[in-house]
Amino acid sequence: MIRFGILGAGKIAHRFAASLAKVEGAELVAASRRTAGKAAAFLAEVPCTPGARAYGDHEALLADPEVDTIYLALPHNLHHAWALRALDAGKAVLCEKPAMLSEAEAAEVTAAARERGLLFMEAMKTRFVPLHPHVVDAVGALGPVARVHASLCNDALASYRTRDTYILGGGPGSGVLLDCGIYCASWLDELLPGEIAVERVDTAFYEGSDVYVDAHMAIGGVAAELECACDRARPRQLVVEGERGVLTVDDLHRPQHAELRIAGEPTRVLDAPYEVDDFYGEITHFCALMRAGDIESPLMPHAATCRCTRILDAIRTTW
Known about the structure:
The chain is an alpha/beta fold and 319 residues long. The chain has two domains: 2-124 and 280-296, NAD(P)-binding Rossmann-like Domain (Rossmann fold), CATH 3.40.50; 130-273, 2-Layer Sandwich (Dihydrodipicolinate Reductase, domain 2), CATH 3.30.360. Helices cover 34% and strands 28% of the residues. The chain has helices spanning 11-20, 36-45, 58-62, 79-88, 103-116, 132-141, 157-161, 176-191, 280-292, 302-316, and strands at residues 2-7, 26-32, 53-55, 69-72, 92-96, 120-123, 145-153, 196-206, 209-219, 222-229, 237-242, 245-250, 257-262, 268-271. It has an eight-stranded mixed beta sheet. Strands 3-2-1-4-5-6 form a six-stranded parallel beta sheet, sandwiched between helices. Helix 5 (103-116) packs antiparallel against helix 10 (302-316) and helix 8 crosses helix 10. The longest helix is centred in the middle third of the chain and has 16 residues, at 176-191. It holds the Pfam family GFO_IDH_MocA. Belongs to the Gfo/Idh/MocA family. Keywords: Oxidoreductase. GO terms for molecular function: nucleotide binding; oxidoreductase activity.
């Protein structure tokens, strides 16, 4: 049995815990929040083992000998410090996206995991959904890729302004590029090898935080566009243009549907619903790596985590 502790049991952790309960051979045994009372309230709301421990101190959770691995769901700016502390405590780490704020942070944490022989994986769920291998195969059918446009935009700014959210505020870890742009960066990393050259970036800011980013780049000599927003609605799609046709993936951060249009051929519809939900694939994959004694994922390797942050770093240097 793989015993999980959730470090930072907030909103996203509720969905994670519900999915974890469906994974065979894994269980939630502990959670930590700012106070023990809040951690206990969280455990009362989600599936967990009888007697699951509630901690008001993250260090106390890391010291729990009955916790094998950590799901790190703290705000973005806390991932680096607490991933290192978890690894120092001998815990494997499944870290919510974006794993780190910069390539330097990602390089340090992944190196620490390798040095300690512990599994570290960024929870980039798009790579573990049933549609993913079909998308990869479809891209291969396009012939040489000429352009990739990855867009994840939501009209949510009015909602964010009325509640406490780390996306706004202007501090480290804030902004839509880290929160939504990381999904776009993951697709670009996966589909386009080679050097990253940023050509133009259009942005909008609210109280010091980026709320719209539209970055035009060349990656390995191929045209690439990364667009993300929390202040406007636009198609949430991955569009890959190749020599022979176009692939469109809907809801690129939670993909279940895509369409492949090859010149002279009928449109191919690719539908692959979740087995359980959008978290289930990444959790089952992570648990399989744990059982095998692996320290990184072949689907979301350390190099991918570092390169995704490198793409975001390159965009931010233009601001």
